[in-house]
Amino acid sequence: MYVTVKNYLLECCVDSVESAVAAQAGGADRLELCGNLIIGGTTPDIHLFLAVKKKVSIPVNVLIRPRFGDFCYTDEEFNIVQKDVEMFRENEADGIVIGVLQPDGNLDLERMGILMDAAGDRPVTLHRAFDVCRDPFQMLRAAEKLGVRTILTSGQKNSSYEGRELLASLVKEADGKIDILIGGGVGAENVEVLAKETGARSFHMSGKATLDSAMTYRKQGVSMGLPVMSEYAIFRTDERKVAAVRNILNKLGSAG
Q1: How many domains are contained in the chain?
Q2: Chain segment 79-121, per-residue pLDDT in tens
Q3: With 0-12 CB in 10 A as exposed, 13-18 as middle and 19+ as buried, what is 85?
Q4: Which of 32, 72, 199, 240 is the most buried (most CB within 10 A)?
Q5: The domain that contains 77 carries what CATH number?
Q6: With a threshold of 0.90, does the pTM exceed it?
Q7: Where are the alpha helices (DSSP H) in the chain?
Q8: Is residue 87 part of a domain?
Q9: What is d(CA 230, CA 124) in angstroms, rounded to the nearest whole number?
Q10: Which of 187, 175, 162, 158 is nearest to 246 (CA)?
């Protein structure tokens, strides 16, 4: 088992039991459990959560997102989000990952306050709704006032490497009051640069690899979802990819 050195935290987002086990074996300190990572993640099934909790010993945070797309929710969608937060808290999720925006791109303070109450004593992460907000520094301050512990962000770019300038500013502005968790394309090829240029101590990755389906019979011309995706490609966390990032962070930590 890998050990974190000098508080470099590595979180892995996973959407299966197999990926959760691989992430822990590779040295992840914490999991973000989702459903449907291929579309950015949605709320996982409660039975998936319970199965993961039985298989791993590291903390499991749960993403609460009712659908693909924006973070401006109807009343019905928000009611579902609130109930899911309560359900996962009651089932001892280690943390809750949420985000609700207003139509104008600002944080929905009223609804976020309701969800913070629903989360109770569970630490809350504000997810990448942050990356499509109007003003990241205003949102950072609003999140701090709400009691949010962590902000997951790519620096409002498609990848954290592209967003590293803003990420460095956010780390400085947060000043340790909120943990800036860097996500979006984090891997062994860039995590050292991201750590050194941003000053961040927390990183989020998927470490995905594409596995071939066990199906030997393959019906052609039938798509169950996105037509650009093969029905016979399975996405799973690769223990080796996680371990490569863990090793780099451990070396950085050892070097001070």
Answers
A1: 1
A2: 999 999 999 999 999 999 999 999 999 999 999 999 999 999 9
A3: buried
A4: 32
A5: 3.20.20.380
A6: yes
A7: 17-26, 46-55, 75-90, 109-119, 136-146, 164-174, 191-198, 239-255
A8: yes
A9: 35
A10: 187
